[in-house]
Design brief:
alpha+beta, two-stranded parallel ribbon, 24% helix, elongated
């Protein structure tokens, strides 16, 4: 038989509080993103984008392509594949 959870028992002690990943770092400095630009010159890339919510994915494709171009990738080395649907 199913019984709803009872109110907190008086003898249960102090509840544990889950710490976030950043709290666990303590006084150490939080991680920072690198300001170095990746080197894309001479490398080949493929961008795979979903046709689902195309108005959103189109903007993401434009942004990804822009970053690759600014990093030195040539247009002929960037391939775009549109795929149906989404995986969630």
């Amino acid at each position: 038989m199913f019984r709803p959870a009872s109110p907190r028992r008086p003898d249960a002690g102090t509840p544990l509080r889950r710490r976030s990943r950043f709290e666990a770092l303590g006084s150490r400095q939080l991680p920072r993103a690198s300001s170095l630009q990746p080197r894309a010159r001479g490398k080949r890339f493929v961008i795979i984008a979903s046709q689902f919510n195309r108005s959103i994915t189109r903007a993401l494709v434009v942004g990804a392509t822009d970053v690759l171009r600014r990093s030195g990738a040539s247009s002929r080395n960037i391939r775009l594949l549109w795929v149906p649907g989404a995986f969630e």
